[in-house]
Amino acid sequence: MGGGPATPPRPRSSLSTKSSGSMVEITRDLEHTHVETTPPPAVPEVQTEDKKFRLLYARSKVYVYPTAYARDNVPGWVALVKQEASPPVYLLSWLPESLLQRKGQEELDKFVHAEAEDYDEQDGVLIGLPVPRGELYAFSVQLSMVYSIMMSAPTLSAWYGTMTINLTTGSTLPKLYFHDDESRSLHEHRREGSPTPTWGGEALLQRLRSYSTVLKSSLQPGLYLIDPSLADKEAHSTVLFDDSAVDDILNPVPKHRRPSRPSKGGKSQSAPPSQRNSILHEGMSGASSPSSNFERGVLNTFSHITQHARHAAQTILSHPLAQPIVPHLPDPVKSFVHADGEWSGWVEKGGVGEYESARVYLARWARIVAEAGEKARQQETAADGDDTGVQVTSDLGVFEVLAASNNLPTPKPTRNPRAPIQEHEWDSWFSNTGRPTVEWTFAKGEIFRRGLMPEVRPKAWPFLLGVYSWTTDAIERATLHAAQKTQYNQIKALWNDNEEVLQREEVIEERHRIDVDCRRTDRQHPYFAMPEEWANAGDGGPPSAVGQSPANEHVQVLMDILTTYNFHEKELGGDHLGMSDLCSPLYVAFDGEESMTFWCFTRFMERMKPNFLRDQSGMKKQLLTLQQLIAVMDPELYRHLEKTDSLNLFFCFRWILIAFKREFSFDEVMRLWEVLWTDYYSNQFVLFVALAVMESHRNVILRYLVEFDEILKYCNDLSMTIDLDSTLAQAEVLFLSFHQRVADIDRRRKEREASTETVDTLRRRRSSGKTVEDKLDTVELPVLSENLMELLENERG
C-alpha cells in the first residue's frame, strides 16, 4: 500500500548433489520465490563467482532465539567454510536445520559426517554457497568482516553458552546459543594436541585461531577481537590490575607463539594486516631487513615487560595497605604511587567495589593521571611567570579535532578570570546619579571575560537577570525595588497565614514537596546547615510548619520564596523539583534579602522554565540541539555515542536541567551562572559548556567506555572534579569555532550554488569518467538545522 518501489522477489536456492570419488559437490539452481518474512539486518554478501566452497568445521544444535518463548527457538548448524580462491577466503556461517532437511538426507549427512570426525583442508567436503538468499536468520560472512566475538560461557543460571558476532560495519549478527547437551561434537570432535574445549563456543573459537588472529581483550571479559589492528591491540592489551600481573611479567608471550594462518603448502605464515589497520600500522607494514625485525622484536618485548612492571608497581604501591612503607622508598619508586586521595575517593564512591566495571575503573584512572599531569604543567607555566590566563591546550582540552576537521584557524579564548571586576571598578561605570556611563555590551563582555567579586554580585546580578534596566538611574531603581517588594508581599499573602488556603490538599502536597527539596539543598553551606545546638540537642530543634524535621531560618525563607513562586507562576503546574538548587545561590548572593531573591529567581526561571515543563519538551529540544552540535563539531565522538546507544545524552540531563549546579562547588556555580547570564555569545551557551566537558574527556570516552551505562556512570562521577576556568575557556573556543564553521558552510554553499551552471556545462563537455574536482563537488556539507542556527542568537525577546 506504500508509495515506495516494489521489492523484487528474492532468488531462492534449490540444491542438487553430485558424487565424484570421495568428494561431494553441491550445485545450486536459482529460482525466484517470494519471501514474505523480512530477514534480520543484512550482512555483507559473499561473492560466489562460481567458486567452490569446502566445509572445514560443523557443529549441530546451535540455536537462534527469535523470541522469549522456547517454542520459537530455531536449531541450526554453525560452520567454517573455505572459499576456493587465490588467496582463499574463510567464511563463518550459520544454517538452520530446516534448510538442510529440505535438501534431503544426503545433504544433511555431509554435515553430520563433518561434525563427527576430524578434517583438514584436503579432506573437507565440497559444498555450494553455504547460505542462499532469503533464509531467515541464516548468515555467511567472511572472517575478515568479523570485528569481534563476545563469548558467554555456560553457568548455573545460564545453562547454554552464547556467542555474539560483531562485524566491522557495526552490525551484530543474531546471538547463537550452544545446546551442548544435545550436540555430540563437544567430545567427539577433538584435534590432536589441542586442549579439550569445555563448551561449544570455545571449541569454535579454538578452530578460528587456525585461520585468523584472535586476541582476548583485557578490558572486557569474554570479548575476543578477530585480526585486530595495532590500535585495537594497544587498547585491548592494557593490563587490568589484578593478581596475575606478576605472571604476565614473568611469562610474556613471544612473537613466534602467536596464532598464525596456514598457507596453501601447509606451512604457517604470519597473518596479513587487516583491512581495518590504523594509520600507524599501515606505515609500519613496509619491508624491512631481518636485523631490523630482530631489533624491533627485542625492543618490543622489553617495552611490554617494563610497561607491565610499571602497572604492577603502581597497583601495589597505590593500595592503602602499602601507604606506611611509601615514605621509606627511593624517589624514583615513589613516582609510581597514584595521586593523594585517589583510592579513598574511589572507595567512598564505590569506585573499586565488587561490581565496578573494569572499563570505568580504567577510565577514571586515565582521567586522574591526565589531570595530575595538567596541574603539574600549569604549575610549571606559573613558575615561568606566564600570567596570560587560562590555557586550553592540554591532555583534557582536546581541540585538535577542530583543526583536523577543517582548515579554519583555531580561535583563542579571551577569558581572564584571575582579574575579576572589583567593586570600585563597577562603581566607576556609573555617574553621580547612578546612571551607567558605559554601554551594556561592554559591561556584559567584561563580566563574561573576568567575572565578578562576591561583593559586586548584589549590584550586578539584577542587571544581568533583567530585574533592572541598564538605562535606569539610582532613584528609578530604588522606586522599582520598593514596588516589587510590595508586590512580593501581596503574592505571599495569598497563602501565608491563610488557613483556608493552607488546608487545601494540593497546597499541602506542594508545600511538602518544596519542604523536602529545600532540606536537601546545599546542606554543607553555612546558610542552610543545621545549627550545632539543634544537632547536639536531643529534640532536634523547633518543629517544621509542614510536619518535617526542623529547618533553620534560611531554609524556611527559601521554602517561603518557592511557595510564593508557586502561587505566582501557574504554567509549570507545581513541578518544583530542582528549583531550590537554582534559588539558593541567589539567596546567598543577596544575603537573605527575600524580595530581591524572589524577583531575580523569577527572571532566572523565565530562562529555565523550558527545563521544568511536565512534558519535558524543553529538555528534549536542548538535548537534541546538543546532539546536532556534537555531530557538526566532533563527528567521531558522535559516531561513538551512536554506537554505544548514548545519543539520548541522558548523562547530560542533570548538567542542563539545573545549569551544572551539582557539578561545581557553590562558589564556582555563582561564577559560572554570571557568565551564562551575560548571553555574550549565545542564549544557549550552557550547551557549549556541556560540549566542552565532553571534549575534555573525549579520549577517555572513545578508548575505554563502550556501553551506555559506563558513559553515564563516568559522567555522573565527574561532579566536583571539573575545572571551571579551563572548561569556560574551551566553551568559548568551541563557540567561536562553531561560528566560523557556520560562516564557512554558508560561504561554500553559496559558491557551490553560484557555480552550478558553470560546472554542469563543463561536465557535459567531458567524455571520460569523473575527475578529482567532480568528487570534491559531491562532498556533502553538514546540515545546519534551525536549532543549531538558534545557537548564534544572543538577544532575548
Question: Mind sketching the topology for me?
Answer:
Elements (H helix, E strand, L loop, with lengths): L9 E11 L2 E11 L19 E12 L9 E10 L5 E8 H6 L2 H12 L9 E2 L11 E4 L3 E7 L8 E7 L8 E3 L6 H4 L11 H9 L5 E3 L6 E4 L3 H7 L8 H6 L10 E2 L5 E2 L9 H5 L6 H29 L12 H4 L7 H7 L9 H26 L16 H6 L17 H5 L12 H11 L6 H8 L9 H20 L5 H4 L2 H15 L12 H5 L16 H16 L10 H11 L4 H15 L8 H17 L1 H9 L9 H5 L8 H12 L7 H12 L1 H7 L3 H9 L7 H31 L1 H10 L6 H6 L8 H5 L7
Antiparallel strand pairs: 1-2, 3-4, 3-6, 3-10, 4-5, 5-7, 8-9, 8-12, 9-10, 11-12, 13-14
Overview of the molecule:
The strands form three sheets. Strands 3, 4, 5, 6, 7, 8, 9, 10, 11 and 12 form a ten-stranded antiparallel beta sheet that branches. A two-stranded antiparallel ribbon has the order 1-2. It is α+β, with helices and mostly antiparallel strands and 797 residues long. It is built from 33 helices and 14 strands. The relative contact order is 0.06. 44% of the residues lie in helices and 11% in strands. The two termini are 47 Å apart. Among the domains are: 53-187 and 198-228, PH-domain like (Roll), CATH 2.30.29.230; 361-367 and 401-414 and 616-763 and 780-796, Orthogonal Bundle (Cyclin A, domain 1); 423-535 and 549-611, no CATH class. The longest helix is centred in the C-terminal third of the chain and has 31 residues, at 724-754. Strand 4 and strand 5 form a beta hairpin.
